[in-house]
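G., before I forget:
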Amino acid sequence: MKDQVLKVVKIGGKLIEDKTKFQEFLKDFSALGGPKILVHGGGNFATEMALKLGYKTKMVDGRRITDADSLKVIIMTYGGLINKNIVAKLQALGSNAIGLCGADGQSIISKKREVKEIDYGFVGDIERVNSDFISSLLNQQIIPVFSAISCTKEGELLNTNGDSVASEIARAMSSMYETELYYCFEKSGVLANAADNESVIETIDKSKYRELLDEKIITDGMLPKLHNCFQALENGVSTIFLGNSALLQSKTKHTKIVQ
Amino acid sequence: MKDQVLKVVKIGGKLIEDKTKFQEFLKDFSALGGPKILVHGGGNFATEMALKLGYKTKMVDGRRITDADSLKVIIMTYGGLINKNIVAKLQALGSNAIGLCGADGQSIISKKREVKEIDYGFVGDIERVNSDFISSLLNQQIIPVFSAISCTKEGELLNTNGDSVASEIARAMSSMYETELYYCFEKSGVLANAADNESVIETIDKSKYRELLDEKIITDGMLPKLHNCFQALENGVSTIFLGNSALLQSKTKHTKIVQ
């Protein structure tokens, strides 16, 4: 089966918020040939919904603290509204999709994050991806669409970092397929100058990565994203691409991450 | 495959609202042997959520009118919160479940209800159930858990009557399995006297059904439920059972519907 290329695509929250760009992205995703998997974030939808419901969103170091109310909102918005709407839109584009969270078919099993300095609440760190179940869907020409929710072995739903969901799925599937990982987000890739969307660094290998870390060019949200990327490359994923919604059709400059 | 008995179980909204009874029901459901499918309503969760969000729920003749806001709430609560929580609870009980709406794997294709006297809004009438896809899950020992949401061929999500979802799934699956349909709700079955929960009519066949209709013993919500039942029996479903949450373990009196 290793002769087939599997594409695991993560779409970031800010792209989902922009209706036009999101629809373009789904068209491009739908047009991709071969087996593929979509992982989505949820952007501000959960925050907005929590606000409407009178729940306060607690953040520490740019990370959401997931209390019981937040988890409820995340399951409703990411696991329900956004996930099912993506599936329906893909069906409209002729792509047979299925919307999943980690509890479905025990697809993404996690462990609740231990409380150290910060109690992140109902947050999961992924332990195991059920690659057999996911490949059984792919073999039926069905496109799995994952919201970033995992589940413990004991059946507890947990909020999970979307980038990690994508990279862990890609890692697990790489034993069966040649696997490419795509991170689509609001920028054109990893930027040499954060203020200049044209300053895309086109290729990053391990030595370039260390250089960029030393020069503090990689900061904030890009830090865990690139850390995830190199972990995935070390664990079987062949190539990783970062870029905007046009990335899937290679219409624009983007960043390619290689070992 | 017809030697296998498939159980299609619908659980009503009011049972889901009662945490203790709901957990008991899930234990009983989890303990059922053989292939099985769960279909759930959502009870007052959608109405409560709509209220919290400041949306008004419009009812005509006891039926919810599904405007765009209501549909959003239904997808969030039934398709997200309730569906994923049921799946997680089943996983906790050792049952490998998957949460689906009609858009997932094109499992339940419907048509938007035509506007005649009443415009029901975003409401679907089922046209086709994807029995091949559902049986592929059953063959993997996975339990499909359906929220009462269907999808048009054009990819539009629609609110759908939960009893109809259950009976249409049972009808479609009856070409592959001997199929039994279970309606679990807050009463002990079809009652001869609505005020007396002990007055269960234990068996209803077609002539008894006509009699009960003539005597106006079957009224309100029981009318479409029994209409669905006899349609299902005429289309391949072998037996239908109606009763409370203990029905699955045959612990209490219940109603059996036969041709």
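The two ends of chain A are 23 Å apart (CA to CA). The CA atoms of residues 245 and 251 of chain A lie 9 Å apart.

More on Monday.
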